[in-house]
Specification:
two-stranded antiparallel ribbon, single chain, mainly alpha
């Protein structure tokens, strides 16, 4: 039997549940509601959540090609165009960065990508060397700068990507834990540790390693990615490898985002099974992804996944949010991505 089959089946089950429960078609367009009926604001349209919906649907299409999913991707793409009046942007630079990543995953030739990456690069505050969280904000944080660095690394603006990645490392890395803190506001570091910040810092390092001009640069970026994976492994060790949960709302996506980039690291560092350290980093990343995917699967009830994999899913509260179910699907899709690694 194909060793990837169980993981792919679980990812497909999560996908089917999200699409059936949340995604609605309106003629040739589609978009997702924020929660199941009966929840306040259930029909709200979330820009950031749609970025991750588009992104994970494209992951699923790579893992399990299907023309029906291709049509849904196109309908969602049209839906985002309609809901943003064709601009594909918001005043929040973190959201713009996430949407740019989704578009790059969907289609690198999409003409909107250059406009969005230019918006991100132009918004960097030269006095700080980083992107603010939003127009007029004095918060400069990892959720804006790390995904922006990934997006810019995939564009013609690699220099800006290197600078943002370096700013995150120099300003937000916690010397005590090796993890990435949340941000800086009015000169004061916000010390909260969130899962998704670790994920995009790993992703930023790997994106820069991939396009490095020389072996020394590539090695430096790889070392940063490896050290972040190891820091996450230490962070979660006392809880049997389970990632910290962040409830519903936006927090429902946080752990899934980390799982996505841990999967990237697992694949990246599995490329040389003669290097003991690379093999250990790949194994650590793969184990974290699989442990969390297994816990989510075990705690599901029907087709509903929990916001926290330490407890069963509930038919009320946070578990009814699109973000929570989308975060679980991202984690299960990440597990499908690493399931073929045998080293």
């Amino acid at each position: 039997m194909d060793a990837t089959a169980p993981a792919q089946a679980r990812a497909f089950a999560a996908e089917s549940a999200v699409v059936t429960r949340y995604v609605h078609r309106y003629g040739p367009v589609a978009w997702a509601h924020a929660a199941t009926p009966g929840v306040a604001g259930a029909r709200t349209w979330h820009y950031w959540w749609h970025a991750h919906l588009l992104h994970v649907l494209r992951d699923a299409q790579e893992h399990r090609p299907d023309p029906r999913r291709g049509r849904l991707l196109r309908a969602l793409h049209r839906g985002i165009t309609l809901r943003t009046l064709g601009r594909w942007t918001t005043p929040f630079y973190d959201d713009v960065a996430w949407m740019t990543l989704a578009l790059q995953r969907y289609d690198l030739t999409d003409r909107r990508i250059d406009r969005l990456t230019r918006r991100l690069a132009d918004a960097v505050d030269p006095a700080v060397g980083a992107l603010p969280w939003a127009v007029g904000s004095v918060l400069y944080n990892a959720p804006a700068n790390a995904p922006a660095a990934i997006a810019l690394a995939w564009s013609a603006r690699r220099g800006a990507a290197v600078a943002l990645d370096a700013w995150v490392a120099a300003t937000l890395d916690d010397p005590a834990t090796g993890l990435v803190r949340d941000g800086v506001e009015n000169g004061v570091v916000r010390s909260e540790l969130w899962t998704y910040n670790q994920g995009v810092a790993i992703g930023s390092a790997l994106a820069l390693a991939e396009g490095a001009a020389d072996a020394d640069g590539r090695e430096a970026h790889e070392e940063r990615a490896a050290s972040l994976v190891e820091a996450v492994e230490r962070w979660c060790a006392a809880d049997d490898g389970l990632l910290p949960a962040a409830g519903g709302g936006d927090g429902g996506l946080f752990a899934g985002i980390l799982a996505r980039y841990l999967a990237e690291a697992a694949v990246w560092f599995a490329d040389d099974d003669t290097d003991e350290h690379r093999r250990a980093v790949s194994h650590a990343a793969r184990t974290l992804v699989h442990r969390n995917a297994e816990a989510l699967w075990e705690q599901r009830r029907g087709s509903l996944f929990p916001a926290d994999p330490r407890r069963p899913a509930r038919a009320e509260g946070d578990d009814r949010d699109l973000s929570v179910q989308l975060g679980a699907w991202i984690t299960l899709e990440a597990d499908a991505a690493v399931s073929a690694i045998t080293s």
